Amino acid sequence: MTRLRAIAIVAVVCAAVVTVAADKPKFTSVWKAPEATGVRFAGKKVAALVISNDQDLRVSGEEQLAGELGKRGVNGIATYRMAPREELITAERARPWFERAGVEGVVALRPVSAETEVIHSPSQWVTNSYYSTLWGYYGYGWSGVYVPGGTTRNTTLVVETLIFSLPLDKLLWAGISTTTDPDKQPIFVKQLIDAAVKEMKQQGLVR
Q1: If residue 91 lies in a helix (H) or strand (E), which one and from where to where?
Q2: Which of 21, 76, 161, 176 has the fewest CB atoms within 10 Å around its CB?
């Protein structure tokens, strides 16, 4: 597996080999915007976005995330269903599709593998201009997609989960989760989504 050193806050879902000592994803850092207090996604359309060049991973991840949102009273929709693939890789081309679909929120996941310890500071979500709005992050996120491969052990995955409000055009919530030697891809994706939705529930964004 090719390794990628973490330079900034990065993140979402990738594949690795099953190991007995596999850890479930754990959130090591979270941040919530003051504006998030009054936001509720119940009954509203929220897009599930997995930023990955692995189409199979992206489709399965977005479907699982949309399904979990639906169980909690949110009208979750997988982003890949909203527009052709080539229309979703830049902010300029993707934005009209989101607006026409009437999306009010976006839950975005993005992954990276790091061979050294990565320390993420919540302040970076506040001070980094890429993260302040969905469309600033959208182009930044697709420009730094991690490509998984191989069967290397002892891989630490760092996964970024971001929640945006489109009406406010603001980042509402951000979290960094890590896992060491993740299980098979479908199991790991489910574990990650379960952890992310649990955090959203604790923050009052979903039921």
Answers
A1: helix 91-100
A2: 21
Residue with tokens 């009273």: 73
pLDDT of residue 20: 31
Fold of 26-202: Double Stranded RNA Binding Domain (3.30.160)
**Nearest Cα to 148, choosing from 77, 53, 78?**
53
Closest C-alpha to 74, from 43, 40, 30, 109: 43
Q: Quick one: CA dihedral 191, 196, 201, 206, positive or negative?
A: negative
* Tokens 């529930």, residue located: 201
Q: For the chain, give every domain's residue range.
A: 26-202
pTM: 0.71
In a 3-state reduction of DSSP, which class is residue 45? strand
**How far, rounded to the nearest angstrom, does the alpha carbon of residue 21 sit from its chain's CA centroid?**
24
pLDDT tens digits, 134-191: 888 888 888 765 544 444 455 677 888 899 999 999 999 998 888 776 556 667 777 7
Is there a contact between 23 and 115 (Cβ–Cβ < 8 Å)?
no
- The rounded distance, in Å, linking the Cα atoms of 47 and 63 is 10
- CA 52, 95, 79: angle at the middle one, nearest 5? 40
